[in-house]
Write a structure and sequence with these properties.
Elements (H helix, E strand, L loop, with lengths): L3 H9 L1 H13 L2 H11 L10 H12 L6 H12 L3 H9 L3 H22 L11 E9 L21 E7 L4 E8 L10 H5 L6 E5 L6 H9 L3 E5 L7 E2 L4 E6 L2 E12 L2 E12 L9 E6 L8 H9 L2 H13 L10 H29 L1 H7 L2 H18 L13 H12 L34 H5 L3
Helix pairs in contact: 1-2, 2-12, 2-14, 2-15, 3-4, 3-7, 4-5, 4-12, 7-12, 7-15, 11-12, 12-13, 12-15
């Protein structure tokens, strides 16, 4: 049950109460410290607990505080550690710890999404879909001594991110500290997570013999765009299937061989009626899905859903502070990006709760992530001052069923009009007269022009 003071805030800003409640559950100190103890190999707990560091950085990632230094100043008295200790801990968070934070919290949030009934319609009934994409972190400031005399942009790392499109959650990350490393270096880690019955969707950068054969060996399937340098053996001629709005579809049987293994695939070609903005005249995908499960057109539609993971990364970049330019150490940069993905998942749960009440399509088409986060950032500080921390601890003890019910109750109080998207209409091109610059009149008074002078 919510306390009276929390209920009063919920009447004015139920979205903020929902967000804080889910954060309280996800960032439970004992769970975060347990993750650290199980996965850290070099770092260890001292006066500064890992859960305290996560709580601090999450406020920066969500835009509540503008920097780690600002967040530390607000919490310095209760933390009782130096600023240097905070940065030393942050700069040393190991990649496997970052990954475990996302993976384990996402597993819990996936169950919560199922319990609320906020899932999207399945892309392919009977199969779990996983969409894989790479993300290179933006360059940082040259705050480290080794960077001060380097003209090239310093890259703090990259990662492969896995999206569950049905639940709209980032469920895994494979971080890499080497910003120049090829994504293929991480494929063995990805293959170790592939489960029987999953469908993996990815772009051409993931199209290698070892990766495709590795997925097939694990009794999973894939829909991955063809890389032009991938060798294969044709088993049949390219046959016309049908004509669709985008162009003509063809299909053929092919064979891949790798490390003594042989896999038969379908090669599906969409010859585009109009080239893409990148100049591509066709889209070619490889899949080992049976034709009885997904015909050529369905397989291409599955691949087109790959944009969802790019939308996820764009949302993280635009709405969260996941790439903090002052965090030049690779471990710290990867950790902040991972927490941004966790924050994205929390936002997805909020939208899932709204979807359970108003419908998935309504929420996806009308609710703006920007306005939701703007509400949170505007209310959060005052809410945390007005409501002592003990009033939020009840969220930590809620079961999945109880949490789902509480979020649904709060979702019913949300006024969706306050968070409605404002799509821009496409502008019609006008033939404007060229402006002639008069050197004798370098500037004009706007007020005079408005008054007709």
């Amino acid at each position: 049950m919510l306390s009276e003071i929390v209920k009063r805030f919920a009447q004015e800003s139920p979205i903020s109460v929902m967000m804080r409640g889910v954060m309280e559950s996800v960032f439970r100190p004992e769970r975060l410290d347990d993750i650290f103890e199980r996965h850290a190999k070099v770092q260890y707990q001292r006066e500064l607990l890992f859960s305290t560091l996560v709580n601090l950085l999450s406020l920066v990632v969500c835009g509540i505080h503008p920097s780690m230094n600002a967040a530390y100043r607000k919490k310095a008295d209760e933390m009782n550690v130096t600023r240097n200790a905070v940065y030393e801990k942050l700069n040393g968070v190991e990649p496997q710890v970052s990954r475990a934070v996302l993976k384990e919290t996402a597993a819990e949030l996936s169950k919560l999404m199922d319990t609320m009934g906020g899932k999207s319609a399945p892309l392919l009934p009977g199969y779990e879909i996983r969409i894989l994409d790479g993300n290179g972190l933006a360059s940082t400031e040259r705050r480290l001594k080794v960077l001060r005399e380097v003209a090239s942009a310093p890259l703090p790392g990259k990662s492969l991110v896995v999206l569950d499109p049905e639940r709209r959650l980032a469920v895994d990350i494979f971080p890499c500290e080497d910003g120049h490393a090829q994504e293929r270096r991480l494929f063995n880690q990805v293959l170790s997570e592939v489960q029987t019955g999953e469908v993996w969707i990815a772009d051409r950068n993931m199209c290698t013999q070892g990766f495709l054969v590795g997925i097939a060996q694990r009794d999973a399937v894939f829909v991955i765009r063809e890389h032009q340098n991938l060798p294969y053996q044709a088993l049949s001629e390219l046959s016309f299937i049908e004509t669709v709005d985008a162009g003509e579809i063809f299909e053929q049987r092919i064979e891949l061989r790798y490390d003594g293994h042989r896999v038969e695939l379908r090669r599906i070609v969409l010859q585009l009626a109009m080239p893409t903005r990148h100049g591509d005249t066709d889209i070619v995908v490889f899949t080992n899905l049976p034709t009885t499960v997904a015909d050529a057109s369905t397989s291409l539609k599955l691949y087109r859903n790959r944009w969802q993971v790019e939308g996820l990364l764009l949302t993280v970049t635009m709405n969260f502070e996941g790439e903090i330019k002052t965090l030049a150490y690779p471990k710290a940069a990867l950790f902040s990006f991972t927490l941004a993905l966790v924050a994205y998942n929390i936002l997805a749960i909020i939208k899932g709760a709204l979807a359970s009440v108003h419908g998935v399509e309504t929420i996806e088409e009308t609710v703006s992530d920007f306005y939701v986060l703007d509400e949170l950032q505007g209310v959060y500080r005052g809410m945390m001052i007005a409501i002592p921390s003990e009033h939020w601890q009840s969220f930590q003890d809620l079961s999945l069923v109880a949490m789902a019910k509480q979020l649904s109750v709060l979702a019913n109080q949300v006024n969706l009009k306050r968070f409605r998207k404002q799509p821009r209409k496409s502008k019609k091109k006008k033939n404007k007269k060229p402006l002639v610059h008069d050197p004798k009149k370098p500037h004009v008074a706007t007020a005079r022009l408005l008054s007709g002078q």
